[in-house]
Amino acid sequence: MDSIRLRPLTRLFLALFLFFVSVGSSFAQGTAADPSKAGVAPGATAAAAPAAAAGATTGDPAAIAAGDALFKGNCAQCHAVNEVVVGPALAGITKRRPMSWIIPWIKNSSKLVASGDEYAVKIYNQYQKQQMPSFQLSDAEITSIIAYTTSQEGVGAPAAKVDGGAATADGGGAVAGEEADGGKSMNILLIVLVVVLIVLVVTLVIIANIMKDVLRGRKDLDGRDREVMEQRFDFSKIYKSTAVRAIVGVVFVLAVLYESVQGAMGVGLQQGYQPTQPIAFSHKLHAGENQINCAYCHTSVYKSKSANIPSPNICMNCHSQIKTESPEIKKIYRAIERKQPIQWVRIHNLPDLAYFNHSQHTQVGGIECQTCHGPIQNMEVVYQYSPLTMGWCINCHRETPLNTKGNGYYDNLVKLHDTENGAVPFTVSSNGGTECSKCHY
Ligand code: HEC
Ligand code: HEC
Ligand code: HEC
Ligand code: HEC
Ligand code: HEC
Ligand code: HEC
């Protein structure tokens, strides 16, 4: 064998190979150049590390998606990630503050300000002493919100727009490091991996072809060897294979089944239901900004089974004086003149087969409205926050300890429970809160 003769196909692959190698290496350079382009010193990764340790920058897509929804529901009216709205831009917050500060701040910022926390007081004064509302969010929910805001840093806004005041106050570390964050570099890594894979495949094909060419030159091959050598990859074989057909069929059937089960589970679920109301009444304005107590309007919520919807008379306590010229308020006057109720659209509605009592939960159990109804005080238009399924009721009954303090009625029951299995708390379900007849007539 004197020289290797390259066939046209091999030449084509060789050309492709060279192309991918050059593309691949320029990508690799791109990644290396990227951080310096963003002005990040080598220290930036070190700076990002404590934030990740705090659990805030976990790239977990589920947490980010949950944080996205929570952020839009609770925070978006006052905050954006990359610009100042009512409150500061949240970009770089994990670099400014540890999670151990962020969580209590979001739960109750005024408490932190009142405690004299230096940073809290500073930012409170900086934003004209506007009070950020308190949120009944769990630590995990707050962590997911921060994971979401961190993932949005630098998206859709020039870096220079990032809140000058708060961001630079703590050493300007906020802008740096943003571009180096999780999402982007993951993507680049993926692209590089794909390119490497393609290069590998092309290399293998080239090697195979060259070896074939070499073999072709040899005379000592018998018929079967030649057959193996000349074998061509045959797509129709894959297509005809029963195994492949069976697998594709099973996957298809499973996908259809999964979709229909998901669909069936959702039948009758009203979570997120947000009808348009006849008057543009805003809980955000009344319960949020003007801090009117829920029970001022929903007068029976602590006393009886149902929370009532206020009659127009209650509105008139204020609106006989306030905003009397507003067209929306005139609708209240019209209802009163015509002696017709305002036709509010009902949002929460359990089927008749279930029994639910507000006073049992709000007065006796001491549960906040927001636990079941979400951040009503931030809702412009009310929507159904919880699923209101049986599983939802039961889960909470299983997990929530019964409020037995100072209630003599429970003393013996608790004693009995503690001697039998003191390790588990005395929950609503320990007291029979998961018995069918408690909730079903
Ligand atoms: C009604 C408006 C409002 C809402 C809603 C709101 N905030 Fe704030 N937030 C503020 C204001 C104003 C400040 C500035 C401090 C102050 O004045 O108390 C602030 C400050 C902050 C800070 C400190 C920022 C920094 O740069 O140090 C964080 C973190 C924060 N908010 C997170 C949140 C999160 C998370 C939510 C949603 C769960 C939320 N906020 C909802 C108004 C709001
Ligand atoms: C100024 C009176 C007023 C105050 C204060 C008020 N609400 Fe309401 N609420 C209404 C009116 C009117 C409706 C019916 C229209 C609507 O759905 O927006 C309503 C509807 C609701 C609904 C939906 C009812 C349904 O149809 O299922 C819930 C839940 C609710 N309020 C909870 C609260 C909570 C929690 C608070 C306190 C944070 C509160 N409200 C404070 C007047 C008030
Ligand atoms: C405790 C006092 C109080 C009660 C009760 C009350 N409101 Fe209001 N309402 C206010 C205040 C304060 C404003 C804000 C006025 C402003 O923006 O200057 C307002 C604003 C409004 C607006 C916005 C008007 C506009 O055009 O900007 C509507 C609509 C409204 N209320 C409807 C209602 C309805 C319906 C009820 C009865 C279910 C009700 N309010 C009960 C105090 C009250
Ligand atoms: C344990 C969960 C839970 C808590 C806590 C709770 N609610 Fe409800 N709320 C519900 C459910 C479930 C319904 C639907 C009831 C039905 O259809 O019979 C409802 C319905 C309502 C309605 C519509 C009218 C009605 O009674 O059907 C209003 C208004 C309301 N809630 C206000 C409040 C207010 C205000 C608070 C706090 C003081 C509160 N809720 C606390 C679960 C809760
Ligand atoms: C956020 C938690 C939570 C949710 C959600 C919840 N409950 Fe409860 N429920 C409680 C607590 C706590 C008590 C015990 C109150 C007490 O007696 O101290 C209770 C008590 C009850 C009781 C009385 C039980 C007894 O032993 O006498 C009934 C009935 C009940 N709930 C029905 C429901 C129904 C129906 C739903 C769903 C629509 C529901 N609950 C959703 C927390 C919850
Ligand atoms: C804590 C309250 C609670 C307890 C305890 C409870 N349920 Fe329910 N159940 C509900 C609620 C609320 C619904 C309505 C849910 C919905 O509309 O999705 C419901 C719905 C149902 C339905 C569906 C009815 C329909 O038409 O869709 C059945 C069946 C049912 N329950 C059976 C039971 C049985 C059997 C038990 C005892 C093992 C039980 N439930 C215990 C609250 C409860």
UniProtKB/TrEMBL annotation:
Q: Which domain of life is it from?
A: Bacteria
Report if keyword Isomerase is assigned: no
Does Transmembrane helix appear among the keywords?
yes
Q: Give this protein's Gene Ontology molecular function annotations.
A: electron transfer activity; heme binding; metal ion binding
Boundaries of each Cytochrome c domain copy? 62-153
Range of residues in the leader sequence: 1-28
- Transmembrane region(s): 188-211, 242-261
Q: What is this protein called?
A: C-type cytochrome
What organism is listed for this UniProt entry? Hymenobacter perfusus
